[in-house]
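Deviations from the work plan: none for this task. Representative record:
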Amino acid sequence: MTQVKTRILLDPEETPKHFINIVPYLRRKLDPPLNPLTDEPMPPEALEAIFARECVKQEASTEKRIRIPEEVREGLMHFSRPTPLQRAIRLEKYLKTPARIYFKREDVSPTGSHKLNTALTQAYYAQQQGVERLATETGAGQWGSAVALSCSYLGLEAMVYMVRISYDQKKYRGALMRSYGGEVVPSPSTRTEFGRKILTENPDHPGTLGIAISEALEDTMKSDRTKYTLGSVLNHVLLHQTVIGQETIEQLNMVEETPDEVIGCVGGGSNFAGLSYPMLASDDFTNTKFIAAEPSACPTLTEGRYCYDFGDTAGMTPKLKMYSLGASFTPPKIHAGGLRYHGVAPTISMLYEDKKIEAKAYGQIDVLNAGITFAKTEGIIPAPESAHAIKTAIDSALDAKENGREKVIVFGLSGHGHFDMLAYEALMQGELENT
Amino acid sequence: MTQVKTRILLDPEETPKHFINIVPYLRRKLDPPLNPLTDEPMPPEALEAIFARECVKQEASTEKRIRIPEEVREGLMHFSRPTPLQRAIRLEKYLKTPARIYFKREDVSPTGSHKLNTALTQAYYAQQQGVERLATETGAGQWGSAVALSCSYLGLEAMVYMVRISYDQKKYRGALMRSYGGEVVPSPSTRTEFGRKILTENPDHPGTLGIAISEALEDTMKSDRTKYTLGSVLNHVLLHQTVIGQETIEQLNMVEETPDEVIGCVGGGSNFAGLSYPMLASDDFTNTKFIAAEPSACPTLTEGRYCYDFGDTAGMTPKLKMYSLGASFTPPKIHAGGLRYHGVAPTISMLYEDKKIEAKAYGQIDVLNAGITFAKTEGIIPAPESAHAIKTAIDSALDAKENGREKVIVFGLSGHGHFDMLAYEALMQGELENT
């Protein structure tokens, strides 16, 4: 029996030493963030009231590579970097496809997703400048878990505003964050003026990511020992995720493969960017297609507009030039909570506008069924977010079968679904609509 | 900064090629199983009505090494073997201990525990003899998940009787098993005569592992296309787990460490045996202490009797010579469901009786607090079962600190606690008793 190499591992010491910055590789200059009150371009320093100084610096950086601090790199290694690249050999057999399918396993992070890469980095920069507490929001809970663990690792306090519907549905996520020592409240909460205002109007408001961001920002601005930390969208956040793609390139080299397609799910875009940016910044992948997979219930790229918009609901964030469904858009309550966001990262938006990347949208029944197929063949129950990438990969592999041609597909398994079993249960009970 | 090697990885190709059989290494001959009706010694063949033929053969084997079928080995590799051995460097720092603490990560299995090692092996042997369906029971759900995935992998049907209290508390576990294509019912169920009898007497019966075993056995005996599969206690089950200890020995060699203490949690004993038996079968570990950690709510080794007893509640299984609290013992509803079993493996019982291994018992508040400490330092939320081993390791590390001496501690992280967050939530809400 010929042994196919199905799990491609790197040594902890091979964890990347730099982040790869996509900005200098873009065809055009990024449009600057605008002051939400005046619509004037904002100097980066204005963001220092909210974010750690080093993050603000990175937000505007045009350096191609930025060194990862040794303490951060050690933390990434401690928490399972580099992650495996794995060949989905059983999925291939099940689909009877000539395509070779690889997936990058961010699910092995102790918090269950790729989010720790930037949470740890941001927390480190904040700690270095004397910050004692981080405030943030979370939807599905992957980001909040990563922030809570990062704070515990570095001796900071963590304050997490969790979208109420997720807080109620995913009690285990809240418990995980609390286990790490984080404080978690459902948003809208009574902790902030904005939260109280919304609760007065509607005591049963299910919350949105936009509202939770507004709450975390208000919390930050009221406390001088607190900084805010964001899990997606901004340049520096996506930057920190590029360890994913750098490792993937190394691992593909080890099995001498060049991908025809690289697929990632897209909410704010951090997972997709983490996987694809190091390849988009390289000359070795000019024949590779990059595909962003999003929910048809929140079709930011496929149906949104490329325009300046707020990142939150209250209009407290700078305006960003991005694909958006509008800052007041409330997506249906689909189970991929991490993709229920009205906007998408400015860098991804520009790459999409310039046709360097493509996008596809899928209904949640199709997506979760793909997740079940993946669980049955590869054993891993994927996060509903990640299942969008799996659906795209499966469709592509079936297409390869139909056309009888080989193809190399790489997708990002951004996280596991252990805290999302409610979604799969609802699917199996026939309770979902394919929105 | 000196880099300490904190994650010790083996290549997939280094997955063990043999199981290590402890039986020929025991000082005395094992007492034979007795026929439950006649109390006469049972010939192994009598078990073939229930178990796969090869499992029955292995149950009575005195070979020192048994070859792992290549298809099984490939499956083990596909599902993440070899698993990492990791140094708990952050836990050490937090405890300020001179001890070096290593843990073997069975939590990286896609079903979240060590159980897949034997589930896959048993399912393979059953499939090889033409069996189409496996029936089993599960307590906490780790075993049922492993059986469901193994059946999916090999094209068999899976039928899981899940202890009702766990079924109700751990809805996500049921959903996971169903995602893998398994059928899951709460036990006592209406599927079997024994289940119906119990439900007639008490419609709200919370179930026990003993009852669920009786149901799965009755199911098996009524169907000629079905075999039964057990997740612990028996020789062949423990045998299949010895891949864990063999890898651990290799990994300890890589960092040139010899453990002073090897610690595992014990319910039926499969995780403890998997880690320790390859060392107990070797001459290189004569100065190593082996410690079994159990719940004080179900103190089988520390307070049980060494005698012949049934494995189930209905008295359908052969009687085994083992430490037992009595087949009718109903343990309190602690959260470490996998350790709520009245008996312990005959081989472990004999080793304990012969003082080759030690045992310690802990209350669940102390155990879960140790789990939280581990989550905060190492990032991984452990299964409540595994937290027993962590509690033992922490106590030992603190002892080393008090005595100011170095020490090498290795413990088995038998699984993660993603499906057990209710336990930690109850702990943090102050709802638990330290039983």
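The mean pLDDT of chain A is 95.
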